[in-house]
Amino acid sequence: MKNSEKKDIRALSKEELREFFLSIGEESFRGNQVYEWLWSKSVHDFSAMTNISLEIRKKLEECFVINNIKVDKMQKSADGTIKNAMRLHDGNIVESVLIPTASRTTACVSSQVGCSLNCQFCATARLKRMRNLNPDEIYDQVVAIDKQSRLYYNRPLSNIVFMGMGEPLMNYRNVLLAIDKITSPEGLNMSTKRITVSTSGVPKMIKILADKEAKFKLAVSLHSAIDETRTKIMPFNDNFPLKDLKESLIYWYAKTKRKITYEYLIWKGINDEQRDIDALVEFCQAVPCKVNVIEYNPIGDPRFQQADPTVTDRYQNALEAAGITVTVRRSRGKDIDAACGQLANKSIGEAPVLKKDLGKL
User: Fold this and answer.
1) Helix or strand or coil: residue 111?
2) Which of 36, 115, 340, 350 is catalytic?
3) Largest Cα–Cα distance in the chain?
4) Which of 302, 361, 328, 337 has its CA nearest to residue 83?
5) Rg of the chain's alpha carbons, rounded to an integer?
6) 109 neighbors 160 (Cβ within 8 angstroms)
């Protein structure tokens, strides 16, 4: 049987693996063993499953494949940030980023090949959305970045943010399945408190997540609290207006009691007036929240230019005066196009900066 005709074994649940082994005349506990190799030990080769007989491993190879992703190219920033071009089994590429600080390392992972939305200021949005990532493809990104964290920074990965390529809530089922595996004691056993899902704001899906009592943190890329302005820079806002977004966030907090984080970029001539500041303060008062004012990272579009620093100060002062927590964040990895909004597969075709270390991952 050709690999293209075989089922990816990681699409099977533990119970389905147990049933498979029963169907070939083996004891069901073999399914538990294989499941552990696949998820807890993150093995990508049947031959590495050393507590399973050679005969059974050959049977697995006959019936299944493991469509793991591979770190195709890496680039390291002057600030220590590492950007990865991850090659999928079908040849598509997504990008993931390791962001180190003095106290932690964060994985910024992708959820789609390309993006479903059309934010004008984001390089990823200019890529055609090819497909959603499977749960195992999201999981593999985390595993690869955890290895990098241990290799380069001598500590395990501490945080995960879904802020890479794609809109997570347009692939919410696979994102939730991946998070289940990442947080499971039978997977990576990471705390949900260390995971943040960032969305551009899909009200219906935010309500569904609230109903599912999601334990992770929710961040919203807001960038304007005025519908007219937001629609110009994020045209999908026409379908998901701020009124509906606010209602869904109030619902989220009522269900989960978890604060919202708003991500906010400030551009010259777009959202740098007093009315923009006042609108944000009013929007933030609807539900407990905090605001991350993020430095804009250019993507070659002259319409979007970093606002004057005094405007950032005015935003910060107004939010703090209203009792709203605000943090001004400086971007990491700008020199390798790894910062927020810059992931656009530019690394394809470039020589990997860290080629000598690819074998360790």
Assistant:
1) coil
2) 340
3) 72
4) 337
5) 22
6) yes
**186 catalytic per annotation:** no
Is the distance from CB of 76 to CB of 353 less than 8 angstroms?
yes
Q: What angle do CA 172, 178, 180 make, to 5 degrees?
A: 100
The tokens of 165 are what? 């390529």
**pLDDT tens digits, one per residue of 293-325:** 987 877 677 888 888 999 999 999 999 999 999
pLDDT at 3: 67
Smallest CA-to-CA distance from 139 within 182, 105, 183, 83 is with: 182
| Domains, the chain, ordered by start | 3-65 (1.10.150.530), 70-355 (3.20.20.70)
Is residue 349 over pLDDT 60? no
- Taking the C-alpha atoms of residue 258 and residue 77, their distance in angstroms, rounded to an integer, is 34
Residues 305, 309, 314: CA angle, nearest 5 degrees: 115
| Whether the Cβ atoms of residue 63 and residue 6 lie closer than 8 Å to each other | yes
Query: Residue 139's closest CA among 75, 190, 99, 214?
Result: 190
Catalytic (active site) residue 95? yes
What is the rounded CA–CA span in Å between residue 345 and residue 337? 9
pTM: 0.89
pLDDT of residue 284: 98
> Distances in Å between the alpha carbon of 356 and those of 73, 140, 180, 351, 361?
11, 21, 33, 11, 11
Q: Enter the DSSP assignment of 58.
A: H
CA distance 216 to 213: 9
Mean predicted lDDT score pLDDT of the chain: 89
* Nearest residue to 261 via CA among 281, 288, 294: 288
pLDDT tens per residue across span 100-153: 999 999 999 999 998 878 787 777 666 767 899 999 999 999 999 999 999 999
- Catalytic: which of 95, 137, 167, 263? 95
**Type of residue numbered 318:** A
61: part of which helix (H) or strand (E)?
helix 54-63
Q: What is the DSSP letter of 194?
A: G
